[in-house]
Amino acid sequence: MENYVSSHSSSDNGSSSICEVLQILGAKWSFLVLNELLSGPQRFNQLQRNVAVIKTQSLTDTLRHLEQKGLVLRQVFPTVPVTVEYSLTEKGSDFQTALKEMEKWVQKWGNSEQGNIKTSISS
């Protein structure tokens, strides 16, 4: 199956673009973290409260990954204790358009049983 996916994605430009997006975003919780940071910079504990479904280590890993990929900026302030704040870079903020489109899709198709019923009734 893996060979099929890689050979298929290299011949199909749309698939390779999607694979590239998934490699950049990578971490399981990336979309949720990016969406939360769209509201503005947040400290780790604040972010953790706002995305309570994510365990501490997973949030740490996700933030590191997004920082490494250039979507999240980690700023350390020399206070006592040290303050760390996370915000979106220009690259991360630019992902807002894709998130909004995903939200539209979920509103239309999120509950597939109801979506199919609505489609059948309106046809």
From TrEMBL:
Question: Per the database record, which ranges form the HTH hxlR-type domain?
Answer: 16-114
Residues in coiled coil: none
> Origin, by domain of life?
Bacteria
Its keywords, alphabetically, are: DNA-binding, Transcription, Transcription regulation
A Pfam family assignment: HxlR
* Protein name per its UniProtKB record: Winged helix-turn-helix transcriptional regulator
Organism equals: Paenibacillus mendelii
